[in-house]
Amino acid sequence: MIDGMDNTDPVLGIISINPPIDSVQGFNATTSNFDPEFSQAGGIVIQVETKSGTNQLHGSAFEFFRNNIFEARDPFNQPANQPFPAVHWNQFGGSLGGPIRRDKMFFFGDYQGSRQHNPGSASIRLPTEAERAGDLSDLGIPIYDPTTGDPSTGAGRTQFISFPTGSANPALVNALCTNPAGCVNVIPTSRLNTVVQNLLGPKFVPLPNVTNPSSPTSPNYLISGTQEFNTNQYVARFDHYLTNNLRYFGRYSYGGYHLNTPGALGTAGGTQLSTGFEGTSDARNQNGVGGLTYNVTPTLLADFRFGVTKYRVFVSAPDESQQLATQVGIPGINDPNRPDTWGLPDVNINGTTGAKNNTSGPGGFPDRLPMQLPAQ
Predict the structure, then answer these.
(1) E strands along the chain, which residues?
(2) What is the rounded distance in angstroms from the CA atom of residue 57 to the CA atom of residue 234?
(3) What pLDDT score does 371 carry?
(4) CA–CA distance, 25 with 44 (Å, rounded to integer)
(5) So what's the pLDDT on residue 96?
(6) How far is CA 66 from CA 71, 78, 89, 262, 344, in A?
(7) DSSP-derived pairing of the beta strands 58-67 and 45-50
(8) Of the candidates 211, 278, 261, 286, the residue with the CA atom closest to the CA atom of residue 19
(9) Contact predicate 342/336, CB 8 Å
(10) Which pLDDT belongs to residue 102?
(11) pLDDT score of 341
């Protein structure tokens, strides 16, 4: 709570405004035996009181800065064969409070901003050039023809596997690969799915950049990038002592937050580089409080508070401005007249979501909700 009013988002249950330290007069934390007015409390109630002006003019200013020039490379987070990502962290602000009319009216204002560029990296496995062409022999996993055998159980399916030269079925050998002697678990080119080939194209998924990984299934692609996180926070407060018994105040707080985080595969999604989020988020939190205090008698006090909290966040994915599903050949997803349906759908294979885990292809973004369009 701030100045006696709720400071909690009613949907997510999180703090709406994080007041800058220079704007805090004091706080109280209660972990048990809550007063009846805090009936919504669970584990703790934190009450924050903001500063007001005084008869003397007071102010403060501060600056904190660091960047990659003064930092060593993190061997666990920043691959040596990738450019060192820019690190920039600048936090700054100041406050000012004083009288408007001595002993009667006071003002206080505070600003705090930050500009952050935080490095991140990911180590994932991407399909090799041979695997994209259907040659999965390096994985050592049997590949079966889905058009054979029992369609409901998969029993009796024929394995995609070559036969030695001189086999009784040389036609099958020629159909599977051009080098029968060294060809195992190779899907014929004619059987490769066009949509998958488009998804695995260089526009979405680059080729591996790690040579000789420890095993065929080990990560073979390293990528690093920088997350941008900028904040702006404002506090403005006015106090007026009308009489010795009557006082009122008003306070407004603003928090603006901009987050821009790239994904390992850029527009195509893939795993995150740092925070478990990729894309752009713009949040604007506002909190306003008005209060009136009246001393009815030396032993009776009347206190009234009114507050408003607003929470707004816009989240956008890097792919949402393009009809990528249509471009790769997936129908019924991107409605040209509905920009909110654009982008790639969230791809899920055997319970693994491309946008969240280290997968071998583009995954889209979890916030992208494919919709089933009615037939036209």
Answers:
(1) 24-30, 45-50, 58-67, 88-101, 105-124, 221-241, 246-261, 279-297, 300-316, 348-349, 352-353
(2) 19
(3) 35
(4) 20
(5) 97
(6) 8, 18, 5, 22, 37
(7) unpaired
(8) 286
(9) no
(10) 93
(11) 86
Classify residue 283 by burial, with Cβ atoms within 10 Å: 0-12, 13-18, 19+: middle
The candidate with the shortest Cα–Cα distance to 162, out of 145, 179, 148, is 179
Averaged over successive runs of 10 residues, the pLDDT of the chain (376 residues) comes to 86 84 92 80 86 94 87 64 73 96 96 90 86 82 84 83 48 48 68 87 87 86 86 96 94 94 80 74 93 94 93 85 88 89 75 37 42 36
- Between CA 249 and CA 245 the distance in angstroms is 14
Q: Which CA distances in Å does 171 have to 126, 174, 175, 183?
A: 32, 5, 6, 14
Q: Where are the alpha helices (DSSP H) in the chain?
A: 129-132, 170-176, 194-199, 324-328
What is the distance between the alpha carbons of residues 228 and 281, in angstroms, rounded to a whole number? 10
The pair of structure tokens assigned to 140 is: 């050592």
From 66, 105, 64, select the one nearest 87 (Cα to Cα).
66
